[in-house]
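User: Round two. Same drill as before: sequence, then structure, for each protein.

Assistant: Same drill it is. First protein:
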Amino acid sequence: MVGARVRRQQVAYAQGRGLSGRRACALLSVARSTLGYVSRLIARDAPVIPAMRTLAGQYPRYGYRTIRIFLDRQGHRMSADRTYRLWRQEGLQVPKKRPRRRVATSPRPLPPTAVNHVWAYDFVFDTCADGRTLKCLTVIDEFTRECLAIDVAGGIRSGRVIEVLTQLVSLHGAPQYLRSDNGPEFVARAILRWLHSAAIETAFIDPGKPWQNGADESFNGKFRDQHLSLHWFRNRADARVSIEQWRQHYNEVRPHSSLGYLTPAAFKTKHLADLDGGRSPAMPARADHDEERRRTKDGTLLNQPTGAILQ
């Protein structure tokens, strides 16, 4: 079965091949009265489509869910189903199929429960146009998903890692735990001595289990997919400027699905405001685009959002 719009296109194609309208409708079992129908959706969707195409060109690796948030900020409020319909109608980029998730044999150790509870850091590698290697140290707060720093250099040893962490601690305060793999930069004696002096405990993941550092691994994947793979840096100086601009965009502009489509900066501000006001602090919750909250007649929620952190 095809829709009425496709049937009208079939009739138009038959008329283009020489058939009369009456004959084409009879052969295709289409009512002649439907040929003159003009959908009201065309006029309704006209202001939205140019804005959607502009955002899709500006952020080529964002799917329709994220573009919907940007459209909402511009005043184009619409449901997820309508956004998906227009997204497919315009032939825009469809998000790639996600690979099947591996089920860990044990839960992720030490889930974060507050700001500055658990930080995670790791390395991402790339290459400049002049052939020189880029080594990026990424540091995130697992609770707020905020990217605290991306340090870009040709080589980063333990001394440089200590320098970056010292600057972050002076700016944001010290975390309780620091999660990482067992790389030589992270298990160096200088790093361990500095962590001990700063009263920061380590949370090393098990060897061969990168999913235990899933928050930072997820961030690194987005960093590569949405920036590194789309840019060809002329040199390291160009890379530092471009990557810092993307980091600020990630923290302050890009909505995060696991934070209820808030930005990391907005979620952190809201969480701290809840703590100061004595209210129950906000917890990261994934906003489901397919199911909206249903309320009973007295206004109570039937479906509460599911928290992304399981105790």
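Second protein:
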Amino acid sequence: MPSRKLTRDQRKTETRRRRRPVSSAAKKPYCFFAHIACAFDARAHASPQATANLLIEISDKTLKSSGWEKHLKIAALTDSKRIELAGEIAMAAALDYLKSENEFRQFPTQRFVNFDLTQPPTYISIYPSPTKVLPNGAKVWRVAESEADKLRGEPLSIRYPEIDHRLALHPFLKGMSPHHLELLALCAMPTEFEEDQIVFREGEPANGFYLIESGTVALEGKTPSGRRVIIDTVSAGDPLGWSWLFPPYLWHFDARATKACTAICLSGIMLRQHRDEDLTLSHELFERTCNVMVRRLQAARAKLISANR
């Protein structure tokens, strides 16, 4: 059979296609180790009736598919935001796996005790094929207790020294019970922002909730003409960001530190987990957040009235 002759333009296109480098970073999967405690009572997380050690792999294809559903441009996300999104998918995959297993389905409460980013391909030597592959392509391995320590990487949810004390001192959490403060401490980490540093951008996954301890943060939006305007200013003692509460869990504004800040960042992913499992904590968070929302809306209304006088 005679070979098909290519035109000059077709030859150039084919040459460019063959020479185009393949990004290994784009194809590198994200792997997470999860230690999950299962119990009949939400308050029994310290003494669970069953535990599961899981390894979850999120491929670039799965990440892009989830981004498409959330109307996100994955290529435009920073590495940290990609990891946050992959972690959100991995957590959902872990819970889906537990619901599919009779051993764990009987327990109404499943709590992530550890959720760690680990380096692939460590798990290859343990399990050559996944225990379960979910419809979105996420792969789940059941890991024996003896192998769990080998898979612990950089912790995404760890207990930081003095974090309990800092949480108890923050005005937003004033009067919260020790039990709820303990739950929040499991998903809290200290953070800092330099002056003019971007805290988050509009359209990115809202996977964090910030309690500002010092400094100020401006919430910024764009006018139809593209001009940036300051919508609100968040100061020490105030919370920042409630988009983690409501689907599709995306930021609606940019946040920029106007003065150097110290803050406590709580994982939106784990907060939603605790909120869904503990109705009293859910009520506390909603009530406190709604009070802040009403206060800020009233302040914005006052500004509009003053500007039109």
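The chain has a mean pLDDT of 80.

User: Perfect.
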